[in-house]
Specification:
The protein is an all-alpha fold. 38% of the residues lie in helices and 0% in strands. It contains three helices and no strands. GO terms for molecular function: ATP binding; ATP hydrolysis activity. It holds the Pfam family AAA_22. Keywords: ATP-binding, Nucleotide-binding.
């Protein structure tokens, strides 16, 4: 399993634009503050909004800054079933044995 540090920052945004820099907008900073609070509470958070607003970039940038050693990226196929999610998470977290 690759760690967050093994993933190039260009992959944080779907376009992977060389030479591009992240701009700390108010929305990004708010997301980072909220994510820090959620992580401190060991809770869950949902980020939602219209396409193209920067949700993925903001989350990736914030996680890279807040907890690079504690994050693993997973990717699900389109319309994953609960079984798919269970198996992907089971593998990503390195849990031994067979998923329930």
């Amino acid at each position: 399993m690759s760690t967050w540090a093994d993933i190039d920052e260009l992959d944080d945004h779907y376009l992977g634009l060389p030479g591009a820099n992240v701009v700390a907008t108010e929305a990004l900073l708010m997301l980072q503050d909220n994510l820090a609070d959620v992580m401190a509470a060991k809770a869950m958070m949902c980020v939602h909004g219209d396409a193209g607003l920067g949700k993925t970039l903001s989350v990736n940038t914030s996680l890279r800054a807040l907890a690079p050693a504690d994050v693993c990226r997973v990717q699900f196929r389109a319309r994953p079933t609960p079984r798919d999610i269970r198996h992907v998470l089971f593998e990503a977290l390195g849990i031994g044995g067979t998923p329930p």
